[in-house]
Amino acid sequence: MINEFKDFIAKGNVMDMAVGIIIGAAFTAIVTSLVGDLINPIIGLVSGGVDFTNNYAVLAGEVPAGASLEAAREAGASVFAYGAFIMAVINFLIIAWVVFMLVKSVNRIKDAATPKEEPAPEEPKGPTTEELLAEIRDVLKAQA
Questions:
Q1: Torsion of CA 21, 23, 27, 29, to 10 degrees
Q2: pLDDT value at 9 more than 80
Q3: Is this prediction's pTM over 0.70?
Q4: DSSP label at 104?
Q5: Rounded CA gap, 129 and 30, in Å?
Q6: Which of 4, 84, 93, 134 has its CA 20 to 30 A from that of 57?
Q7: Could you tell me the pLDDT band of residue 49, with boundaries at 50, 70 and 90?
């Protein structure tokens, strides 16, 4: 069982996956900061200072007017946190866009690094049916 585990770990796919997970976790922290620290303030500025993360509707319970989402949750109220959902969607779209651009760049680099296959030289084509028939005709005429 230990040998099988060693074989499993030694495979390149497992190591690639581990590196991908580690980089993905670090990348998530970067994107979270990008969205929270750069994108949200710009969206808030464009939308007149609205911060989506604290937008919610109280479904049940008592919440003081103007309380933050955290305060509403701490008060034990049941809240419909649509602002947090909007920010999660924005996070997803940004991550999807960055991953798309990353994959596109990697594919472009791979294509540039891969030597292009030269098309095989075309073999000379044989005579057409008409040419063969004309040749047979000429041979028959010469024999007659």
A1: 80
A2: no
A3: no
A4: H
A5: 69
A6: 93
A7: low
Tokens of 134: 């004309």
Measured CA distances, 124 to 121, 127, 128, 131, 136 (Å): 9, 9, 12, 15, 21
The beta strands (E) that lie in 19-115 are given as: 57-60, 78-80
- 46: which 2 tokens? 């464009």
Copy the structure tokens of residue 31. Answer: 């994107």
pLDDT in tens, 100-137: 888 898 889 888 888 777 777 777 788 888 988 999 99
User: Which residue type does 7 have?
Assistant: D
- Residue that is written with structure tokens 């581990």 in the block: 18
Q: Distance (Å, rounded) from C-alpha 80 to C-alpha 56? A: 5
Reported residue count of the chain is: 144
Residue 119 tokens, joined: 């098309």
What tokens were used for 77? 């109220």
